[in-house]
Design brief:
Layout (H helix, E strand, L loop, with lengths): L8 H33 L15 E4 L5 E5 L3 E2 L9 H11 L11 H14 L9 H10 L6 H17 L2 H11 L6 E2 L1 H9 L8 H8 L14 H17 L5 H8 L14 H15 L1 H6 L3 E4 L3 H22 L14 E7 L6 E5 L24 H10 L7 E4 L4 E2 L5 E2 L10 E4 H6 L3 H11 L1 H10 L21 H12 L3 E2 L5 E5 L5 E3 L6 E2 L3 H16 L5 H4 L7 E6 L5 E7 L4 E7 L12 H16 L14 E7 L14 E7 L11 H9 L2 H4 L19 E3 L13 E3 L41
Parallel strand pairs: 1-5, 3-4
Antiparallel strand pairs: 1-2, 5-13, 6-7, 6-18, 8-11, 9-10, 12-15, 13-14, 16-17, 17-18, 19-20, 21-22
Helix pairs in contact: 2-8, 2-9, 4-5, 4-6, 8-9, 9-10, 13-21, 14-16, 14-17
Length: 759
């Protein structure tokens, strides 16, 4: 007999059904409310095609090679058509195998991931599609919350409704983060492999496709083992889905991981230098967000050679001096060096090294460090003399001299080797960096004219107006010296160093950069005469180690060293390049015994220049009109004739300053006049100041042998104006022939009591 339902039970079942419906509607309402709230917070993706993310500013060298990217995001957009099909398949196979088969959400993939994760008791597989990843990357944070997942799904649905699959894939490849600061496939290709994405190989495509899941964990620079394992997993997925054959998979799996970073580590000082220039010109907004393309003057090949030369040179010095820096010694500062190379004809910077390690010290010693230049300042003194009418064949007596300071103290300058050379041509004095001759020359021509010349040649640092200026006692920068020497290399024309050729904005419009105009500051003949003399520095003088190391190109340059070998310099040039090197400690301590410019800095210069000029045809320096070559006697500065003396030099002159007389017998008269100069002058010590005569009469000179100057009757004269040379404006007097050249007067000039060793 069937069971009867009591009338009282029907209302209860109805109430339960109504309750369930109410709860369902309530939850539905809450869900719809939450959904509506999230929809209100979502951006309007219909304008996504106009979305403009922050673009990095890209710096290129003179050959169009990427140097670095600066800005919060390193990104370069490329259309999907330029992305290799194998790259597209690699990414799809590992991130979203059913990309072209599902909509915004892959419900089958979500279910599969759920089951796998439950079975393994953890999250092993995700269910996010490429569309969801793109939505998260564009609009959301990586924070794992239910709210974010809801918004991610809603955004993905909107993306799928408004864009095609290929448009979504295009945006994905250009937006997703691949690690190492790289946003987008092109930036990743360049940063990891140094190539454009269209040139990626199969193993490289698989490696990049492996990164979006966890860019830091699979970073091939930091975790190469994990990176290769993930890459090979991508290759297996590609094979299982029919994108590559088994043999292609196996060959790619055994391929070595070869990484090439295009963010050049040995050009950070230049990048920082250009970055500051850009900020000054365009402002931070344009530099860090607007995606400028900056075409610079840097030559990456030369930059790499400069970096290598500096590192190797510093190691050689430390090996000699046993001052190797150990990381476990607190507060120990490393030996530093700087190198700056420019095109002397334009001022374009070709290489810049501002220090040993940019990550440890961003201070740019090529531009910012002010140090005493030592004898590398001397060419400016000799340039001033040439502009006043002197020649490099003029003679000054290299003998002891004492200067009295205003405070009553005295200064007795010495040559680096503590020897004196007697009658010395200006050519020989500059070639061998003789201090006393240079100081006397400065005293003759005047301190103010030399300072004015330094200003014309681009030295902007303060210069102390005393005789120690001849020895480089006033601090200058490497950039200032390189600029000054480039004038000799450019026939007397000054150019300003610069690093930017031109700039293009994100739309490809070229923005011109204004550069300083070239200015003629000295005669071309003067520039060439200095160059001719500085060639002798490298061939025979203080820089001859450069030739001994095997450098064969025509070159000119000058060494510089300060007291106790605190600073070592070499500034040199070829017809193609002007380059300067400085070596020293930031704390101004000694580099080491005998670590002079010709021994510490010159080898770095040679190492760099031989690579910079590699495979180039040697060029000689251009000889300007109005230059005359004559062979002279080194002891008299007069025209040499066979048998007159043992040592001669092929000297160059401005055509109206060529000597008229020959040297035959002249030196014998000089030797008789002064006694045995070779024994009395060389290596003699200054006479005590208390025995100095009241008249200034230590200056020795040969008759002026220039056509424009009347010839005196004597071949050796004494000047009471401290001139070692008979200058057109000076009327010399004949003094007592019994005058002893070793005895030293007190001139009226008052230099600082400190001395600078100029070698």
């Amino acid at each position: 007999m069937p069971t009867k339902i009591s009338p009282s039970a029907k209302p209860k079942s109805h109430r339960l059904l109504i309750g369930l419906i109410f709860v369902f509607l309530a939850f539905t309402g809450i869900f719809m409310g939450i959904l509506y709230a999230h929809l209100q917070e979502l951006p309007d993706i219909r304008n996504l095609s106009e979305f403009k993310p922050m673009h990095a500013t890209r710096l290129y060298d003179i050959h169009g090679k990427l140097i670095a990217q600066i800005g919060s995001e390193q990104r370069t957009f490329v259309p999907l058509s330029d992305i290799p099909l194998i790259m597209q398949k690699a990414l799809i196979s590992i991130e979203d195998a059913r990309f072209y088969d599902h909509g915004a959400l892959d419900y089958i993939g979500i279910a599969r991931a759920f089951i796998i994760n439950v079975l393994h008791g953890g999250v092993l597989e995700g269910g996010s599609t490429l569309t969801q990843q793109l939505a998260r990357n564009l609009f959301l944070t990586p924070q794992r919350t239910l709210s974010r997942k809801i918004r991610e799904a809603l955004l993905a649905i909107q993306l799928a409704k408004n864009f095609t699959k290929n448009q979504i894939l295009d945006m994905y490849f250009n937006q997703i983060y691949f690690g190492q600061g790289a946003y987008g496939i092109e930036a990743a290709s360049r940063i990891y492999f140094g190539v454009n994405c269209k040139d990626l190989t199969l193993p490289e495509c698989a490696m990049i496709a492996a990164l979006p899941k966890a860019p830091s964990y699979y970073d091939p620079y930091v975790h190469p083992i994990q990176a290769v394992a993930r890459r090979n997993l991508v290759l297996k997925a590609m094979h299982s889905q029919g994108y590559i054959t088994k043999s292609e998979e196996e060959l790619a799996e055994i391929a070595p991981l070869v990484l090439k970073s295009t963010n050049v580590e040995n050009a950070p000082y230049f990048v920082e230098y250009v970055q500051q220039e850009l900020e000054n010109e365009f402002g931070p907004q344009a530099v860090y967000k607007d995606g400028l393309s900056v075409y610079t003057t840097l030559n990456l090949r030369l930059q790499e050679a400069a970096h290598k030369a500096v590192q190797e040179g510093l190691k050689q010095i430390e090996d000699r001096t046993h001052k190797i820096i150990y990381a476990n010694i607190p507060n120990q500062q490393p030996l530093q060096a700087a190198l700056l190379c420019i095109d002397p004809h334009t001022g374009a910077i070709r290489a810049m090294v501002g220090g040993r390690n940019f990550n440890k010290s961003m201070f740019n010693r090529a531009i910012q460090a002010e140090r005493q230049p030592g004898s590398s300042f001397k060419p400016i003194v000799y340039t001033t003399a040439l502009e006043q009418g002197y020649t490099m064949a003029d003679i000054i007596l290299d003998a002891p001299i004492v200067f009295k300071n205003a405070n009553g103290t005295t200064w007795s300058p010495e040559d680096y080797d503590n020897h004196f050379h007697g009658p010395t041509t200006l050519h020989y004095a500059l070639e061998n960096s003789i201090n006393v001759v240079t100081i006397k020359l400065l005293n003759n021509i005047g301190i103010d004219p030399v300072i004015r010349m330094a200003r014309k040649m681009g030295i902007t640092s303060p210069l102390t107006p005393n005789l120690t200026l001849a020895l480089g006692s006033s601090d200058v920068t490497l950039e200032e010296l390189v600029r000054a020497y480039s004038i000799f290399d450019n026939q007397g024309i000054r150019v300003e160093p610069f690093g930017i050729l031109y700039v293009k904005n994100a739309n490809g419009k070229t923005i011109e950069i204004t550069h300083s105009q070239a200015v003629s500051v000295i005669d071309p003949q003067t520039a060439y005469i200095i160059t001719h003399t500085l060639e002798s520095v490298i061939n025979h003088g203080t820089g001859q180690l450069i030739r001994q190391l095997g450098f064969t190109y025509p070159a000119a340059g000058k060494t510089g060293t300060t007291n106790n070998e605190i600073d070592a310099w070499f500034i040199g040039y070829t017809p193609q390049l002007t380059c300067g090197v400085w070596v020293g400690y930031d704390q101004r301590q000694s580099i080491g015994p005998n670590e002079v410019g010709g021994y510490a800095a010159a080898p770095i210069w040679e190492n760099f220049m031989k690579h910079a000029l590699e495979n180039q045809k040697p060029e000689n320096f251009t000889v300007p009109p109005g230059i005359v070559e004559k062979r002279i006697c080194n002891r008299t500065g007069l025209l040499a004739i066979p048998g007159c003396c043992q040592h001669t030099t092929l000297e160059v002159f401005k055509k109206d300053t060529v000597p008229l007389r020959h040297c035959k017998g002249t030196f014998n008269q000089i030797s008789s006049f002064y006694g045995s100069l070779s024994t009395n002058v060389v290596a003699s010590q200054p006479t005590p100041i208390k025995n100095a005569p009241t008249s200034s009469g230590d200056i020795y000179m040969i008759e002026s042998h220039r056509a424009s100057v009347p010839q005196p009757t004597a071949t050796a004269v004494i000047s009471n104006h401290l001139f070692d040379l008979l200058h057109p404006q000076v009327h010399s007097k004949i003094s007592n022939p019994a005058f002893n050249p070793v005895f030293t007067p007190i001139p009226t000039a008052t230099p600082s009591s400190s001395s600078i060793e100029g070698f």
